[in-house]
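Morning F.,

Quick status update on the modeling queue. The single chain you submitted on Monday has been processed. Sequence for confirmation:
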Amino acid sequence: MLLLGALALAIGAGAAASEKPVGDAAGKTVLVVGDSISAGYGFALEEGWVNLLRQRVDPPHRVVNASVSGDTTTGGKARLGRLLTEHRPDIVIIELGGNDGLRGAPVDRIRANLRAMADEALASGAEPVLAAMRIFPNYGVRYTEAFHAAFGEVAEATGATLLPFLLDGVATEPQLMQRDGIHPTAQAQQRLLDNIWPVLAPLLE
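Structure tokens below.
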């Protein structure tokens, strides 16, 4: 019975709200809620930046990748509550919005969804990190600028940590992008990790 109880505690089943399902008391749980950029589209998931992060920080920290290819801010908002309950993260990286922008979704909706996710993460006791995305100006300059600004506006309103552009130094390098011009290659994944590390590392201390 004692062994079963310890196992249940380790995976967070039936744990008190203040406890985290991590193997090391000093470690933190990082939850990544993203789309294909974080789900390893076009290559093995193990090659993706989230797994590279796991290799860097685990142990003592724990990394959970809850990214789904094709997901939007609406989908992420709908999934987040369950993920927070299941994993009890200390840090939530929100890498969503790119698919919304590609589909021309209203910026007000994108902003509202991102803010709802950041607020929900904060209410659970987690630190939200917004990994901002950029899009091609297919819908005009006004839409593109409003889309880009939405991430910073949410970060300012909620106090979330902002990563200005996850694909910085990658999206403009054809050799680091897949043929669709949207998704980075496996070779670009270390650069993505290098981009997010400066804002994530202080939260892990």
